[in-house]
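JOB MANIFEST
job_type = single_chain_structure
chain_count = 1
residues = 186
[input]
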Amino acid sequence: MSKVIAAINMTLDGICDHTAGIPDEDLHTHYTGLLQQAGVILYGRTTYQLMQYWQTMLKNPSGQKSIDNFALAIDKIPKIVFSHTLKDTQWQSAALATKELEKVIAELKQSSIYGGKDILAGSRSLIIQLLNLKLVDEFQLCIHPLIERKGLSLFDKINNRIYFKLLKTKVLGSGAIVLYYQPVSQ
């Protein structure tokens, strides 16, 4: 059965902003691998629209292998976008969600449409909802070694205390650390 993997970047001070990290070769390679192993990725509107930047990289490759490979991986993976305002995804591999998040997850976990591969969640808003619904099977938190001071806190809307078991760690060249956690029942 598919796992729901919440994967996101965060600064040392808990700020979650896709533009605040250190986008080095290791980071792009790490996320390319994650995308290639998954069957689908879920986005909220804001993060989805930020990720549309990568469509321009397909048309005008950077010449840097890790960046260009990430652009190809993000283009290829099917995307489900949760939005009340977006009317068109403007991306062939993306579709708007027509059901609530909890129902979509249940259907994806039971379906073989994506070959039983994992379900990624890459938006702060969706990760918060999934954590509150206890639907996250693995949490990959990439902590960047910087203090941003402004922006959205990743965990400000969590309803209850959540315990995690550390599964492994990975250190990237920039000094960013990917922490792999599994929620545990208390």
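[summary]
Helices lie at 25-37, 45-51, 53-59, 65-76, 101-110, 124-132.
Residues 25-37 form the longest helix (13 residues).
exit_status = 0
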